[in-house]
Amino acid sequence: QSDPYVVRLPPYRRVSGVVLQSGGEPVANALVRIGIQPVEYRDSTAPVGGVVASDEQGHFTLVVPSQVGCTLIAFNGEYTSTAVTIDAGDEAPASVELRMLDGATSEIRGRVFLASGGPAEGAQISSRSGHVQRLSEDASVLRGPSTALADADGAFQLTGLQDETYVLTAWDASSTGRRHPSAKVIAAAGATDVELRLPAWGSVVATAQQANGLPVANVSVMLTLTSTSAAQPKNRSTWMKNSEGKVRFDGVVVGTYEARLSANGYKFVTFPLVIKSAGEVVDTGVHVLEAKD
Length: 293
Description:
293 residues, five-stranded antiparallel sheet, four-stranded antiparallel sheet
């Protein structure tokens, strides 16, 4: 019989390496971290991730997961390094080499537009999820992040790039729409006319009640996209911790969905949902959840 007070930590390993300048000189006090944290470890108690500083010889040791792969990246306050992928497995690689991109001088310029056609002031051209990433035959080597914010005219400028090809994605600057990137655009360093367009999105409101009319607490809703949209992930979910049985789901890209409303101890219900235009708030009304046997 298992001990309920014993915490099972996900397996992990220690990876060592060195941070070097583009010319091969060691970089001291560079901050090394996991560039993309695996979902399985984000809320775990395992000592995975964090940030470590390289020593005077540029050496570092970082704890990384064993069961899934991850990427390592270094920063020195001014430049970022190439990102190196560590594959899943119990064995740590012999050594990891992270080279700083301190010789990058190219740039990419362009504009970000709202779905309505107006400028997307404050939109972020991000290095995460919509990263500016190197297109390489070796998928394990990615160029480091380069980010920018669009000005009042939607114009942006990405600097410090290598002379190669990149994938650009813009993100809505608002807190509710930030999860929704534009479609990815491929551009070469030196481009001056890149256009990124943010998707249109609205909101969904739903209320969950018991058969006796009392509210169902801690309601969650999952949306499954049934129409085609390149900018929207197929499945999205949210969870509202409240005692009123109400849930509001902001930032839903225009499209057709199947919605699933559920709560602990109750059978879920599904219903169709359509967001037709930007800014639309669709109130799906009251949904009765039947208690599980």
